[in-house]
From TrEMBL:
Lineage: Bacteria, Pseudomonadati, Acidobacteriota, Terriglobia, Terriglobales
Positions with a binding annotation for FAD: 51, 307
GO MF assignments: flavin adenine dinucleotide binding; NAD(P)H dehydrogenase (quinone) activity
Residues covered by the Pyridine nucleotide-disulphide oxidoreductase dimerisation domain: 345-450
Keyword NAD belongs to the record: yes
Name of the protein this chain belongs to: Pyruvate/2-oxoglutarate dehydrogenase complex dihydrolipoamide dehydrogenase (E3) component
Organism: Granulicella aggregans
Residues at the catalytic site: 440 (proton acceptor)
A Pfam family recorded for this sequence: Pyr_redox_2
Cofactor, free-text remark: Binds 1 FAD per subunit.
Domain FAD/NAD(P)-binding: start-end pairs: 5-318
Positions of disulphide bridges: 42-47
């Protein structure tokens, strides 16, 4: 006999638990189904563990530079990877425990631990139980892509398995020069590994502006990271402890040898094992569930939130998806994905934060625009901290004087960019920031100065 609920939430990532709590508070009987760990990617194998380990890597880097600041460090700096991982595990465990306690305390909510698959548009099976509901919310996330020549016989790491290494790689070969690859590349270089990044595009982070890619390359190469671009026809070779990567299509092509390989070549949605056909849910050519701007799928009563709908691959976009669904269903509001624009940060050190359009996108759109750019060497706070790599850049609509996009590659950029972000959301002209007094000495205080020196984008 099926067990009947008002709502079933599949996947306990960023959106699922929060929506479960809202539904429960609204008096609904809810089932939350999770096949692995509450908290999903971000809490267990994504943002939280990586940013905890980035903090360890930053500490090692600062300790190595101690002499530059007049501080005498007694011995050569080295990293105890096991301690780094223990610290990371503790932070992750605390975060997950908080979530588990929250879900366990909800009224009318049952948490099922198991894999859910559709039986029909109104029912799912979990093990040998069948649950039915008029509303079903999918928050099943994504997983690493591992399809590359040789991956069936050569050992490799993913963004999940690298988090639990018990010894430092002698030479880590990172395949993919984007968000995941670059954060791990710098982290392991700072832990003490030799690191090579292999990217098939002509530059790192191919979706960012060319000056951003170049700035990031400079930062990474200055720390001794080797970078190989335009690496086509990759093939993994070798065996555990002695792995290689063939780099181009011609016979006898160059190889890179290393002790470990990290595959960071993208992620794919967890939709292939949901039996979506039984519910008639439509996916696109990459397997992402197709939704409208209110996150409704083509099937009445079924919604998809987070990475699985292909409308963002970030914790904040998944959380915003939850807010949109809750607003429309429970508060009778009108929030939609149309209200948001791209915002994200890459957590190398210094970080790169971006909002809105890139310079290349503004140029392509043919908009009359103004541009402002300032190197971090002309940001007093960055110089005083001894962290003056990078730059800040803003694109402004020439007519409305509203911000079209901005990037800060530099110390504190992930925080400082939020004043530009708020100005964009409030659709205010940049004069609002340009004329407001900022606190000295901060990275943010140079944003008004940059805005006062805009030039036409030619
Ligand atoms: C290494 C790494 C670092 C990252 N760093 C950042 C960062 O700094 N900032 C940022 O914004 N984003 C970051 N991200 C991305 C971020 O983690 C995700 O965008 C975020 O977790 C949103 O995920 P989600 O809510 O869509 O689902 P997820 O968190 O992926 O959760 C989906 C859950 O569904 C479960 N599930 C799947 N299928 C089923 C099924 N059939 N039945 C039951 N359960 C199922 C899974 O087990 C999982 O727990 C990072 C990702 C990675 C991999
Ligand atoms: N700081 C953050 O917010 C953060 C951090 C990590 C991950 N994430 C999320 O995770 C998602 C996935 O990240 P990702 O870096 O794995 O994927 P990605 O899709 O951003 O980048 C994959 C990279 O691998 C390259 N590539 C693909 N196939 C290749 C091949 N065969 N050989 C060589 N290079 C190849 C691509 O050109 C690309 O540069 C991101 O889109 C992001 O949303 C976010």
């Amino acid at each position: 006999m099926p067990i009947t609920y008002d709502a079933i939430v599949i996947g306990a990532g960023q959106a699922g638990p929060a929506l479960t709590a809202r539904l429960s508070a609204a008096g609904k009987k809810v089932a939350l189904v999770e096949r692995k760990l509450l908290g999903g990617t971000c809490v267990n194998v994504g943002c939280t563990p990586t940013k905890a380990m980035v903090a360890s890597a930053h500490t090692a880097h600062v300790a190595r530079r101690a002499g530059e600041f007049g501080v005498i460090a007694a011995a050569e700096v080295s990293v105890n990877l096991q301690k780094v991982i223990e610290r990371k595990n503790q932070i992750v465990a605390n975060s997950r425990a908080g979530l588990e306690k929250w879900m366990a305390g909800l009224d009318n909510c049952t948490v099922y631990h198991g894999h859910a698959g559709f039986e029909s548009a109104a029912s799912v099976s979990v093990g040998d139980q069948v649950l039915e509901a008029k509303q079903i919310f999918l928050n099943v996330g994504a997983r690493p892509v591992t399809s590359i020549d040789g991956a069936d016989s050569v050992p490799y790491l993913t963004s999940s398995t690298i988090l639990d290494l018990d010894e430092l790689p002698d030479h880590l070969v990172v395949i993919g020069g984007s968000y995941i690859g670059l954060e791990f590349a710098q982290m392991f270089r700072r832990f003490g590994s030799e690191v090579t990044v292999v990217e098939r595009s002509a530059r790192l982070l191919p979706h960012e502006d060319e000056d951003v890619s170049a700035g990031i390359r400079e930062i990474l190469e200055a720390e001794g990271i080797q970078i190989r671009l335009e690496a086509k026809c990759l093939k993994l070779t070798g065996s555990a402890g002695n792995v290689g990567v063939g780099l181009d299509c011609s016979h006898g092509a160059l190889e890179i040898e290393g002790s470990h390989i990290l595959l960071a070549i993208g992620r794919k949605p967890n939709t292939d094992d949901l039996n979506l056909a039984a519910a008639g849910i439509v996916v696109d050519e990459h397997g992402y569930i197709v939704t409208d701007e209110h996150l409704r799928t083509n099937v009445d009563g079924i919604f998809a939130m987070g990475d699985v709908n292909g409308r963002g691959a970030f914790t904040h976009t998944s959380w915003n998806d939850y807010e949109i669904v809750a607003d429309n269903l429970l508060d009778y509001g009108t929030r939609s994905t149309k209200d948001r624009f791209p915002v994200y940060a890459l957590y190398i050190d210094p970080p790169m934060a971006h909002i809105g359009m890139t310079e290349a996108e503004v140029r392509k759109a043919g908009r009359a625009a103004l541009i402002g750019k300032r190197p971090m060497t002309r940001v007093g706070r960055a110089v005083e901290k001894g962290e003056s790599q990078g730059f800040m850049k803003v694109l402004v609509d020439a007519e409305t004087r509203q911000i079209l996009g901005a990037t800060i590659l530099g110390v504190g950029g992930d925080e400082a960019i939020h004043c530009l972000l708020t100005c964009m959301y409030s659709k205010q002209p940049i004069d609002l920031i340009a004329r407001s007094v900022h606190i000295h000495p901060t990275v943010s205080e140079l944003i008004p100065t940059m805005l006062q020196e805009l030039k036409p984008l030619t």
